[in-house]
Amino acid sequence: MMPLDASFPAKRLVHMLSEANVCAVIVSQAKYVDVNILKLSVPTIGVSAKSFVSSSKPANSIIQACPHDEAYIVYTSGSTGKPKGIPVLHSSAVNAISSEFGGFEILEGMRVMQFRAIASDVFQWELWKTLSCGACVVFRGEDALDTLSKVDVVSSTPTGLSLFGDPTQFPNLKCVAVGGESLPFALKELWCNHVTLINCYGPSECAIRTHEHELAKSQAVTIGKPTKNTNCYVLDEQQRQVPVGVIGELYLGGICVSPGYINLPQQTTERFLPDPFAPQNGNMYRTGDIGRLLSNGHFEILGRNDAQVKLKGYRIELDEVADAMMQHPGVISAAVIVKDDTHLVGYFSPPHVDTQALEDTVSDQLPTYMVPAVWVGLKEMPLNTGGKIDKSGLALLSVQSELDIVMTDIEKQMASVWAAVLKVNVNDIGRKTSFFALGGDSISVVKVVNACRKRGLLISVSRLIKARQLWRVAEAVSRKAS
Predict the structure, then answer these.
(1) Which residue, 110, 132, 143, 178, has most beta carbons within 10 Å?
(2) Cα dist from 226 to 96, 156, 289, whole Å
(3) What is the pLDDT of residues 242-271, one digit of tens each?
(4) DSSP 70-90
């Protein structure tokens, strides 16, 4: 199976479906027309909830899967300008799903929320781990906070967790799994007294999760020890194991490792290497994460060593975003950086390129979370001594003057609300800034709507999601208020 997000650009969806060699696409009736427009070369099957209920009798599968068959495929950002397809085998998936969940047991009848994006590998855990325990998957509704108040377990990024607010608002919540980015110590301390808080780690290339560790108050944040049938090594530049406490790059081996990227032999060779420490297990995966092994056997993640970043839990290759910018016929040079750990800034030259046209070009190729929130045009890019774009120099440039100035009182109030909820600088928000490009998600949408209501500004969740850009959202508020 390969879950797809229908909101992805058509070009990206077509590429993924073609490369993964799918035999059919199953889609809800609500999205059937949108998918059918793509004119896929494989059958598109529309289904409804009623059809599942009316035909819910158990049936024997005609096809019997074996451990080395592919269980699912997920796509992540790729430095070549195209997303990377990652097949995960049944043996890897079953190992991940059957592993202990950081000491917390999901019991029959419990309610587990589907919170992460459907196209992410964590969705596979939310679905199959829950069903394998006899528990109930609760798909998030328009008001994600309302759904959250009715479940026992949820998996979130630390950014998402910070938007939940006061833990006491969710008395039914028993367990929260966090992963995808670094967990701030203060946020960990806030939640530890109220729920079982489990810190999870694992790249998509290694079947969802390779580490799951229950965190305790006043203790350091680590990812704990590897799950069953998983090996974790900290190696130097010559791929030799380093002593305990010494910083190196994390490599993962064992049953969790994917066969490699679809149709990307060079990148597969670079990332999936023979495991010299356990040759019988085949390959080990080079994560690109920097970390160390502690004296208690736990592993600690300290950052990354390449151009890949994690923003709001999403893996993003900055070069892929820059490559998408270069597809605009007027752009001759482009670069992308992360600002304040909250959003992307896209730099381009020459400066006269229309930013709306550039944003449209990028949006046609990439998911919303990969589209820069701020655009900066330069006469020429700063270069380092090697003649390459100096990204550290870009980070020093002011971007406030590049934004369309917020004009009306409602726009100013809305910008203030966005800045407070998303924890971004209000000066980074212009009239054409997209809420989702700043890192907005289903939780922060609800927060914004509630904050607006306190100011006497009325807008629904669905209207905000549809409007996206600040000026359009402000217009929707104006019409609603009048």
Answers:
(1) 178
(2) 11, 20, 15
(3) 999 999 999 999 999 999 999 999 999 999
(4) EEEEEEE--TTSSPEEEEEEH
Domains observed in the chain: 1-55 (no CATH), 64-304 (3.40.50.12780), 311-402 (3.30.300.30), 409-481 (1.10.1200.10)
Q: What is the pLDDT of residue 412?
A: 92
Number of neighbouring beta carbons within 10 Å of residue 229: 17
Helices (H), 99-224: 121-132, 144-148, 158-164, 185-192
Q: What is the largest CA-CA distance in the chain?
A: 70
For the cut 90, the answer to whether the pLDDT of residue 87 exceeds it is: yes
**b (16+ CB within 10 A) / e for 2-18:** bbbeeebbeebbebbbe
Which token pair is 139? 């798909």
Residue spans of alpha helices (H) in 311-369: 318-325, 355-363
Place of tokens 């096809």: 63
Total Cβ atoms within 10 A of residue 55: 9
CA atoms within 13 A on the CB side of 265: 0
Could you tell me if 194 and 167 are in contact, meaning their C-beta atoms sit under 8 angstroms apart? yes
SS3 286: strand
pLDDT of residue 398: 62
DSSP readout, 47-58? E-HHHHHHT-S-
Please tell me the distance from the alpha carbon of residue 406 to that of residue 288, in angstroms, as a whole number. Answer: 40
Q: Helix (H, G, I), strand (E, B), or coil: what is residue 468?
A: coil
User: Tokens standing for 373?
Assistant: 């929130």
Dig out the tokens for 146 from the structure. 């309302």
DSSP state of 186: H
* CB distance 35 to 52 below 8 Å: no
Place of tokens 């209207």: 463
Inter-residue contact 370 to 316 (CB < 8 Å):
yes
Which residues are registered as beta bridge partners of 195? none
Q: Which two three-digit tokens encode residue 91?
A: 């043996």
Q: How far is the C-alpha of 55 from the C-alpha of 36, rounded, in Å? A: 24
Q: Do residues 263 and 78 touch, judged by C-beta distance below 8 A?
A: no
